[in-house]
Amino acid sequence: MNYLVYILTNEYRTTIYIGITNNIQRRLDQHHFDSINAKKSFAGKYNCIYLVYYEVYDNPDTAIAREKELKKWRREKKNDLISSFNPCWKTLNNEVF
Which of 3, 75, 81, 93 fits 63 for a cystine, CB–CB 3.0-4.6 Å? Predict the structure, then answer.
């Protein structure tokens, strides 16, 4: 089973959300549903539904450690990470399965 550490952003690329999942399509659907309906989560409240970055891991503990590491980074460093992987911050929602 693969685990993804992922970064979502909103339409204007002003807010980012970092998460982890073992089913990226299901998780993207959950974020999208929350952004339209309940807006209970951070991603839902700020409409972070556009996947712009991800890393794949075989081990859940490694993925969780990486997620925690990324969340501690300053925004500039997160932006640089995203830009090195996805220079135009293109939406990758339909490219990951």
Answer: 3
